[in-house]
Amino acid sequence: MIGLQFACEIEGRMNGHAKNMHFKESMKSIATLLSFLLLMAVHSTRMVGASRNQPCRKTLQRTFKLAKVVQSEASELFIIYKASQGEGSEFLCQAPVNNIPDPNISGLEASERISSIYTHLQSFIPHLKRVYEQQTDLQLPTSPLLPKLLGVSANSRNLALSINDFYHRAFPNLPLPEPAGGPTTLPPPLNVFQQKVYGCMVLKTYKEFTSNVSKEFKSFRGKVCRRRMKTNALF
């Protein structure tokens, strides 16, 4: 009897040990499966974030290239303008002119700075149009200044459209504000000298503005779309 009882106790202990080992192995398998599923979920989220981020990067690259084009054209336009104004052109840009947009970009966050670029650009475009209208009366039809003014105005409008597209891709939940204060204030009728001064100051300021825009978009390339991808990955 004692031997039989001892054998039963041994068998019970062995069965308990086997069940314990089986339980541990099952828990390891479950933990491994959960780890694998978690890694798959993270990978899938990153892939989705990257795919959503691709249009943002492409739009940013396109906008940056166009900003560089407009900057180069604005610099050339300013040189051509001064050369076409005759004697004393070096003094035209020294007189103060009111109501010309500020070339500086404001804002702390990237969304605020892009918004500032957009609103400033929208304000400059009517001034470029007015300079063209004035120079049409002052220049010969064959003057190289006139097609250059048209080209810069057209590319500036295209740049505004590209910035609008990029902003909505980078910040889909933030509305892009329109310029405050209503339509851009343009100067009243001016005499010939005043028109030359006005045109010189507009184009000089616009040249400075486009240089600032190019620098800003160069800095955005490593920040804005990457930040959006990280935000997507969190969700």
Automatic annotation (TrEMBL):
Entries under InterPro entries matching the protein: 4_helix_cytokine-like_core, Ciliary_neurotrophic_fac_CNTF, Leukemia_IF/oncostatin
Keywords: Cytokine, Cytoplasm, Developmental protein, Differentiation, Growth factor, Neurogenesis, Secreted
Keyword presence, Repressor: no
Residue ranges that the Swiss-Prot or TrEMBL entry lists as coiled coil: none
Any one Gene Ontology molecular-function term assigned to this protein's record: ciliary neurotrophic factor receptor binding
Keyword Secreted belongs to the record: yes
Localisation: Cytoplasm; Secreted
GO cellular component, one term: cytoplasm
Signal sequence segment: none
SUPFAM superfamilies tied to this protein: 4-helical cytokines
UniProt cross-references to Pfam families, sorted A to Z: LIF_OSM
GO biological process, alphabetically ordered: cell differentiation; ciliary neurotrophic factor-mediated signaling pathway; immune response; negative regulation of neuron apoptotic process; nervous system development
Biological role: CNTF is a survival factor for various neuronal cell types. Seems to prevent the degeneration of motor axons after axotomy.
Family: Belongs to the CNTF family.
Name recorded for this polypeptide: Ciliary neurotrophic factor
Organism: Oryzias sinensis (Chinese medaka)
